[in-house]
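Exercise (ungraded).
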Amino acid sequence: MARIGVFTCWCGENIARTVDVEKVAAAVGELPGVRCSLNYKYMCSEPGQALIAEKIASEGLDAVVVASCSPHMHLRTFRKTAASAGVNPYRVEMANIREHCSWVHHDRDTATQKATDLIRMSVAKVLWDEPLEPIRVPVTRRALVVGGGVAGIQAALDIADAGYEVVLVEREPSIGGKMAGLSETFPTLDCSQCILTPRMVEVGQHPRIKLYTYSEVEQVEGYIGNFTITIRKKARYVDIKSCTGCGDCWNCCPIKRNPSEFDYGLGMRPAIYMPFPQAVPARPVIDKETCTRIKKGKGCGLCEKKCLTKSIHFDDQDALVTEQVGAVVVSTGFKLYSIGKEQEDGKTSGYGEYGYGKYKDVVTSLQFERLLSASGPTGGRVVRPSDGKEPKNVVFISCVGSRDDAKGLPYCSKICCMYTAKHAMLYKHKVHDGQAHVFYMDIRAGGKNYEEFVRRAIEQDGARYYRGRVSRIYEENGKLIVRGADTLAGAPVTVEADLVVLAAAMVPAPGVRDLARKLNVGYDEYGFLLESHPKLRPVETSAAGVFICGACQAPKDIPESVAQASAAASKALIMFGHAELTREPEVARIDEKNCAACFACIRTCPYHAIDRADVLTPRGVFVKRTARVNPGLCMGCGTCVAVCPSKSADLAGFTEQEIYAEVEALV
Amino acid sequence: MDIGYYPGCALHGTSNDYEQSARACLEALGVGLKEVNDWICCGATAAHSINHRLSVALPARNLALAERDGFGEVLAPCPMCSMELLKASDLMKSDGKLRQEMGRIVELDFNGRTEVLNLIQAFQKVGLDSIKAAVKRPLEGLKAACYYGCLLTRPPETLRFDDCERPSSMEAVVAALGGSAVEWNYKTECCGAGMTLANTDIVLELSHKILTNAAAHGANCVVVACPMCHVNLDMKQADIEKRYGVRHGMTIYYLSDLVGRALGLSDEALGIDRHFVYGG
Amino acid sequence: MTAQFEPKIVAYVCNWCTYLGADLAGTNRLEYPPNVRILRLPCTGRIDFNLIVKAFEMGADAVLVSGCHPGDCHYTAGNYHARRRWMLFRRLLDTLGIETERVHFAWISAAEGKKWQQVIGEITEKTRQMGPYAAYQELSEAAK
């Protein structure tokens, strides 16, 4: 027989003013199972809690009902009190006779009656409450970081420096991401590669970072603390261990003219190539689409012959490896929106009117970065791609794709106002008699020293800013005629430009939706990954143990990406702080004897917390199929309980029996 | 085969040469044009700038009339007319209440069964291969600047025709006729439209720019599929020359003129001799 | 003097939105009729509609199911499941002759204390007008 203690609180005047607490305490003292019933002024106070503890000991109580405020206020408090006095904390219920009673009803009789009813319901429930133990999930204290741009690099270093192993997977042959291709960064005009490459090297040499480049995540299995990741190492055709990066191979490659990915098509690279001079790992890769030997299966092979360390292997194949990790950080970054007519999806459309792809001298912002970069295809000289001449008038157009409902992307890409000002400044620093023209809608320069930076571009470097959009660009006598508007002057503006730079919108990197599905992370209509809460949980996701950072979550600049990366790393480190994760035990469970294996629950569970399993005899003979809840993943919503046709699924803490008992005690 | 024909005010009025040309060349291609019975004005700019319901009601009646006459397709050679008809059709198809209201006002029902075509689409329906096969006099030496103006490809959501920023459907027809088209920059720039009388200066300036650019890119003629464009570029060419002191001497052909010529029809049959700028 | 009929209202609410909304009504001291008894569940998705029938069986005159707004479910989709289930269940109840007007559905968020007050007020008054749900008890007796 249960031994329940009921403790009715006055909450000073808050409850006692309206509810006759003494009458209530007396009434509920008569309920079956109730050993003692008392009332006290402040149940949550130290003496109040001591009272509960004392009664637990003296009356041998095994369950507690506290009639006071909302469980959202003090359920945790009273659970602790009960636990420290030897009562299982999950055999504690609270009847809300303050927020739901004394504060909203003023007739003493009805309020008192309602309070009694509410306590009776809680007593009926607690009779059936099971003693639950917290769930312990072992944690593999290793992390996976997907994407080796500046965010991924920061997260990997933070976790590795804290003493845990990190597996860093990067799709390109080198880490570094978009930042490796930038010339200088705002607002300091630091050389991008100078600040990034030391970190890249640190990653490459870190004893606790296992670097997989030219690799992708193929499959993800498991759950928080216990992920099994399958990684596809794409065939590089070069053994990066024996290769010394001497360069004999790429210097002798006869297929010289492939558009360079790193230079966004502005420069050329051979079929066997080093992605860029500061690459980590500093090893070449063979492009299997353009290499004669790999395409035809025979011929050429010059690089193989030249290689003194015999590191070239044309028979290389993709390889699959598995890694066990406990947490995943996604930092897959962004790409620029496709300005031309061809779009990846049917929802966005291009800017045919800007002539991108038609006119060589209309380039994207990232292409312009390569022109500015000292190690770029033009050695840092700003020249026109068409004829190599120095442009004297460069037009920069903001918001190409961004903030444009007609083209399908209504959001602001955040960084373009700043980098456009930077481009105008750097252009002027290189071409002293050049003139920069910027067409903008608004100037967004909200970061530290950002506004001052933009003012410098205008006041010191003479950039001309026109508030208006560009309607058309066409070529006339070798010049690009840019027709736009200057809404502040109230007149149309035509600029004869030598070069046009389009600040294209930031969109998530290709393939991110597939990765998100593998990880059970949500994404929005643009492909940006969804955070748990936009304000309070910006780096967590709905998938426990999976964190996001950087531009894959939303457009952002380098300082923010780095900050978010450290934030995501800290979330992983919180997990790694203990060998085990403790979870609340109010999770679902399935009566495997009863389960008909219809798997309706599996289809319904939003957390993919239920798996198909086999029931075996102790000797391993197959008995039947069943559904089985993973207590490490279940979040305790109870939807499976409601859909189960055989009532095999139940939810600890809110079981069928408990709820029905509560309803039956109602009336 | 016969299709419905909606001339609109222009083609029975000042741009009667366009009607002559369209009829003649389509007949030569075996397509008879049957005028929609009792048609009325489409409303054009006048209606849609003043009263939204009026701008839907006028085309609604015309579409309903075309349906009543049993036409599956109706050719509206003026892009303003075809645009207004398509716009009203879209609105009524998506808004049942509006459709019913229009039905009451125009006293006829609209059921969305008639397809509206512009001149280029009419040629596409005949088939560019069929047209090519029927060519008797390939247009050698023709260097056409194909001019689309504002309304042939815009608004793109309503017309769903060609690429609104870089169209090429007219060029395809010219190529099928054995001629060549130049790449130029003013394909979709405005000619001044209905400002011809109200604000002639604007028309002169804009049309002058168009003609200049066409010549600069090596064109020896400009091809249009819009009666308004034709008026501004052809009829007003003398005024342009007077104002800017430039002798353009640029022949402005309707697309149907070129098709007709290639099929062997005479300039007189096509009404080309009625143009203001005519070389003979 | 005849006692006015006081309906018994059972409310199955979700822990994260509606329960907090009701708490907020309390914090703001918004007064409403005392006829409702709240049952706290983690999510409206947990609600098997047998629970609704059980409430009537136990003498409830009206039942309210209330959870997070669509798109805001703490567990991402539980409220959608509840709503879809209700669509089907309503037909079933109807066919069985159970008065579906006595079952109410609402989306009340943690910020909507006022809405809680309004909804409870409306339901209580409406149920008062409809009178006690004696018919269910009769049906249930007859079925035995």
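Further reading is listed at the end of the chapter. For now, observe: The two ends of chain A are 23 Å apart (CA to CA). The interface with chain C takes residues 70-72, 96, 98-101, 103-107, 110-111, 113-114, 117-118, 121, 542, 586, 604, 606-607, 635-639, 641-643, 651, 653-654, 656, 659-660, 662-664, 666-667 of chain A (CB under 8 Å).
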